[in-house]
Amino acid sequence: MKLATYKDGSRDGQLVVVSRDLTTAHYATGIANRLQQALDDWNFISPQLQDLYDTLNHGKARHAFPFDPTLCMAPLPRAYQWADGSAYLNHVELVRASRGAEVPESYFTDPLMYQGGSDDFLGAHDAIRVASEDFGIDFEAELAVITGDVPMAATPEQGLDAIRLLMLVNDVSLRHLIPDELAKGFGFFHGKPSTAFGPVAVTPDELGEAWIEGRVHLTMQVDWNGRKVGRCDAGPDMRFHFGQLIAHAARTRRLRAGSIIGSGTVSNPGVEKDGRREWPKGYGCIAEKRAMETIQDGAPKTDYMRFGDTVRIEMKGKDGESVFGAIEQDVSQFGR
Question: How distant is the alpha carbon of residue 22 from its chain centre?
Fold first, then answer.
């Protein structure tokens, strides 16, 4: 099934069930008012939401209305936890190679993960508001899962069983603030502002044959200022699947229902052509493009985002239909 959260003036919005083709919706009032309610009592509430979803898809829901993604908050507008991994090692390799650093061997067996702010997520059409262009504004096209309760020291198999929903992500980064923060040895903070999520969260069964052992085998489509920049395959190059990422997050703590675990920027390795490495599938963040330029030419040529820029992130199923709806954001100056 597909679920979204409509803006209603509150912090947590109103839960709605959305049709498979993303054309109609129905308030879940009477079943659950908010997504967190459903996650807290998933085994009891989700079958009721599924019944409403089936009725909606058959055109028999009495109070259905046209679905409008511009009215959506993040599916889970604030969460108990947001932990983002970096499961696509090509992304890590490129960024490190651009500054002459190798990838430590441990990165191939132990996932990278940071804990981000989860109290104020952005909806799919909310602006990216930043105080200065000098911060190095970048998009990052990712996937994420929302979990049920996960026990401490969970196995990857238990992690997979705990996945309730999947979402599309724009993990906004302020690249010029990150190096000084990492140099302090205490991780990201200012360099990671509010994260944006696609309008609709979906249960794994909605992906059909594209959901294989904790990976989504579909294409991540990224457009920057209306120009295609990324058509990356989210499946084969994901070093750690979502079950492994969840198990990593739960190594020393329980995860409560409503925890969000991210994949990191979807990234595919390029190919050698005429002595140069090229990306036939493009890139999921500007930092990768700049890293490639540095490796090939000694310095980056591509600037980060400017005020007025737009980014569009979407993933379509094998039938060509949008799975999560699209993230469509523009960049604006905070305070104006």
Answer: 19
The structure's pTM equals: 0.95
Domains contained in the chain, number = 2
Domain that residue 84 falls in: 77-333
Please report the DSSP string for 126-189 in residue order: --EEES-GGG-EE-BEEEEEEE--B-TT--HHHHHHTEEEEEEEE--EETTTHHHHHHTTS--S
Coil, helix or strand at residue 270:
coil
Q: What are phi and psi for residue 101, nearest 5 degrees? A: -110, 145
The residue among 12, 45, 67 that closes a domain is 67
Please tell me whether residue 205 adopts helix, strand or coil conformation.
Answer: helix
Q: How confident is the model at residue 280 (pLDDT cuts 50, 70, 90)?
A: confident
pLDDT at 336 over 70: no
Is residue 72, in this structure, part of any structural domain at all?
A: no
Q: What is the mean pLDDT of residues 107-136?
A: 95
DSSP state of 24: E
Q: Do both 110 and 215 map to the same domain?
A: yes
